[in-house]
Amino acid sequence: MTDDRGLKDKVIVITGGCGDIGSATGRKLAKLGARVAIWDILDQAAGHAHVVGLGGVEYRRIDQGNPAEIHAGIEGLAKRLGRLDVVIGNAVHASLGRILDRTWQDWQQSFLVNVTGCAMLSQAAVKVMLKQSRDDGGVRGKILFTSSWVGTHPYPGSIDYCVSKAALDHLVRLVAQEYAADGILVNAVSPGILDAGSSRKALARKPELLKMMLAAIPSDKLGTPEQIADAYVFLCSGESNYMTGQIMFVDGGASLTKRD
Known about the structure:
The chain is of the alpha/beta class. It has helices at residues 20-31, 44-54, 67-81, 104-129, 159-179, 197-205, 209-214, 225-236; strands at 11-15, 35-40, 58-61, 86-89, 141-146, 184-191, 247-250. It has one domain (11-196, 225-249): NAD(P)-binding Rossmann-like Domain (Rossmann fold, 3-Layer(aba) Sandwich).
């Protein structure tokens, strides 16, 4: 494998690409020579400025909860850039609340973005990738998602989010099973508790939450967006070409039982 990890000129789109994980991932992939497109719900000017800072090639305001935007976005991207090598479904609807706190609308929104949106992204990507030739590793394309350790291991306080991530994990396995023989590989990265996103905002409001968070992590430290980006670089590269249907935990051991 070359210094660019085989990623030079690969066309990669990241949804939710202006957030912490998306930005760290886009920056690393762009430095390795990939042509990185970012989707998010920032306005066009702000999103474009963000992409320029990451070294990406384009920004589009596309909502992962809108199937028409997803399908048109994937088709248009492949036409503009000539190919679609990797799709990273990283956009998320994060929420807080236990079962008695959550309304029908809360559940609908979580599943719209975190599950149905990911299914539509898979569908749109598969349609494009099936028409592509295989690369030197026999791969037509890769579809990746950001899951979460709470999709497998219950963590109180965000029930609809946790359940939606459990559904996403099974979506990954099923789409992987359906298209492995066609050279389309499907995997997910499952972060633990990060010093990023909603966790960082929660800690800014209530610093005392750090003790509770660390109680769930055997390594006794929060993860970083860059550590998640490292996992994505691996999954985007040819080094992961014999992997499909896998949920890769990058969680400092949060999915394990912590020992005192």
